[in-house]
Design goal:
There is one protein chain. The N and C termini lie far apart (about 40 Å). About 50% of the residues lie in helices and about 15% in strands. The protein is α/β, with parallel strands linked by helices and about 210 residues long.
Length: about 210
């Protein structure tokens, strides 16, 4: 069961999400918070295993709260749901440990599927953010990578925002093999999540950027 906490200062959005999520058998909304500080106080009480987090929050931002919670509860999944499409917000959230990043223009169905994907250990990135990532270039010398050719193929698929199942289908390998490759990539790059893999790979140009992206 996904024990979800909603953190957003907009009551209408929270109520709308809760109404939709309450109809899902595998998702239980166990708590709500309207500020970053309240979220930090409520987490120990309602014990969620996932948080749907806004960035614009009173007192402490969603990015700041994400960093604090990931230090205290490293296994907790945090999915950012925000109106901000700027690269700096996205990268800050991922660096603090966010497991996914969606924009508020995403339909409810996509949000629900994103919650399930993140719960399974996959990362979810809004398509428009993926495109921006692919066009991002950091003005530093790329680091050498110890990734194998197959791992680079999997990494490129992660950059395209593909799920494990989609990667398996594209590369003609099993879901289990994809998981093994992703785990090795995370370990080799010394990052904490699939989302951080994407940031690291783009910044250091570990894979070729597809033309026209």
């Amino acid at each position: 069961m996904i024990r979800l906490m909603l953190v957003d200062d907009h009551a209408v959005l929270r109520d709308g999400l809760k109404s939709i999520l309450d109809m899902e058998d595998d998702i239980e909304v166990v708590g709500e918070a309207v500020s970053g500080e309240e979220a930090l106080l409520e987490v120990p009480k309602c014990k969620p295993n996932m948080i749907l987090m806004d960035i614009n929050l009173p007192v402490k931002s969603g990015v700041e709260v994400t960093g604090i919670l990931k230090q205290e509860y490293p296994n907790m999944k945090i999915l950012i749901l925000t109106m901000h499409s700027h690269e700096e917000y996205f990268m800050s959230a991922i660096r603090e440990g966010a497991d996914g990043y969606l924009l508020k223009d995403a339909p409810y169905g996509q949000v629900i599927e994103a919650i399930r994907s993140v719960a399974k250990g996959e990362s979810v990135i809004h398509p428009s953010m993926t495109k921006k990532l692919l066009s991002f270039h950091q003005q530093t010398k790329p680091e050498e990578s110890a990734l194998t050719e197959r791992e680079k193929e999997v990494l490129l698929c992660l950059l395209e925002g593909l799920s494990n199942k989609e990667i398996a289908s594209k590369l003609f390998i099993s879901d289990k093999t994809v998981k093994i490759h992703v785990s090795k990539i995370i370990k080799k790059l010394n990052v904490k999540s699939r989302s951080q893999v994407v940031i690291y790979a783009v910044q250091n140009k570990l894979v070729p950027i597809p033309p026209g992206s």
